[in-house]
Amino acid sequence: LLFWNYSYSELANRFEEIYQLTDRAFATAITEPKVNLTEMMERVEAPPAILPSSDMKEVPRNTAEKGDKGKEGRHVMRKHMNQVLHEVMAKDSSIVYLGEDVRHGGYYRVTEGLADEFPSRVLDFPPDETTLLGAALGFAQLGMTPIVEIPYAKYLDCGVDMFYEIAMQHWLAAPDKSSSRSRKGMVIRLQGFDRGVFGGNFHTHNMLNHMPPGVDVVCFSNGPDYVKGMRYAVLQANAGRIVMFVDCTHLLNLRHLHDRDRGLEFSYPNEKELLGFDDIRIHRDDELDIKHGNMTIVSFGNGVVTSLQARESLKQSGILGQDLRIDVIDCPYLSGVPRGLENTLNGYEGVVFADICKEGPGSNIFSSMITSLNQRQALPLHWEFVGAPRTYNPLGSTATFLSQHSIEDAVTRTVHRRLLCKSIE
């Protein structure tokens, strides 16, 4: 009897060889030390690679970069994103860029010109996110550093099994501390997030329910921080981490913060500047000469812009009194509580967490962060949480996203509670 050019006896012998190998492998495994919880947690909670981090933790009240003169050389966020991709790929020949239609500039023109400069390292894939992420895993296993673009945030659902496989593969492949073996991680760009009118809930998504252990999720609110964060992320990916960027559609070409002030156009950061996972940005309310802020709003991504606009509206209305100072904290790292945030919040009497994700279980960021802060006794006495409504996003409307009005209401309630407590005291 022949089967694939092997005789029955040859197949039987091969089966016996495999049986013996398997039996010895199990016998060896039984004698090895058992994995404990601490060791398992170290694999997914290992500290980031030690790298220099930016020493600029705060931005001035008008959100512009210090040192800007006039409007020359200042650009919208999309231009910064495009430039930093050119920068990191020019510096590191191991980086490959994978996506759908990325050779033609991508769905939002973020990769414009990238294929012209790096024709063999910018690769298009068909609309199959499982294949796209699987290819990225293969590149990482071969020692390359992939940057993977998911064209719309909702599309991650289509490749979620492979996404979790990537997280688990890097957990399983974590090198022994005594080993010189190295591994590469990757950067994933999740586009089409929050506050958009295209495609309804099947394209413009605002839930982050896929955040497995071992994945560092970040969401930036402006071009310069995105640049510094991408530089840091690539260095961390080279050291074996999985970093996922959540990119807010509304911010890509947004120029103005208030009226037509061009307050969201910035100059490109110095090439040595990085922004680490523990770094936060504090947009201070500098009009009042008060040593400590009374209140703060914590947000990320598009929520930072909405929070700054809410603060301006509250100040203009005068309903909160002249002695109130409201800072806005930009917290880009979403996979845990950044040390910068934990160390800062105790200085405030009240805080509003403004989450651009939907309210409710399994869909937003700040619920778990609030719990962690409370356990660490780092949460101010007066606090509020506000998020996007827990519903689906219709085509052609932004009614279901986090609104300026909701943030203003939450701040007002927190301030009134604070005043009531002071009056009782």
Quaternary structure type: single chain
What kind of sheet is the major sheet? 6 strands, mixed
| Fraction in beta strands | 15-25%
**Rough shape?**
globular
Number of helices: 11
* Average pLDDT reading: 87
Largest beta sheet: what is the strand line-up? 3-12-14-13-15-16
Structural class assignment:
alpha/beta
What is the radius of gyration?
24 Å
Helix content: 25-40%
Question: In words, what does this structure look like?
Answer:
The chain is of the alpha/beta class and 425 residues long. The chain is built from eleven helices and 16 strands. The protein is 35% helix and 17% strand. It is globular. It has helices at 8-31, 37-44, 77-91, 114-117, 129-141, 160-172, 223-238, 302-317, 339-345, 366-375, 404-424, and strands at residues 2-3, 6-7, 58-59, 74-75, 95-99, 122-124, 145-150, 186-193, 215-218, 242-248, 266-267, 281-283, 295-299, 326-330, 350-358, 382-388. The protein has a six-stranded mixed sheet, sandwiched between helices. Strands 6-5-7-8-10-9 form a six-stranded parallel sheet, sandwiched between helices.
Layout of helices and strands, plus pairs?
Elements lengths: L1 E2 L2 E2 H24 L5 H8 L13 E2 L14 E2 L1 H15 L3 E5 L14 H4 L4 E3 L4 H13 L3 E6 L9 H13 L13 E8 L21 E4 L4 H16 L3 E7 L17 E2 L13 E3 L11 E5 L2 H16 L8 E5 L8 H7 L4 E9 L7 H10 L6 E7 L15 H21 L1
Parallel strand pairs: 3-12, 5-6, 5-7, 7-8, 8-10, 9-10, 13-14, 13-15, 15-16
Antiparallel strand pairs: 1-2, 4-11, 12-14
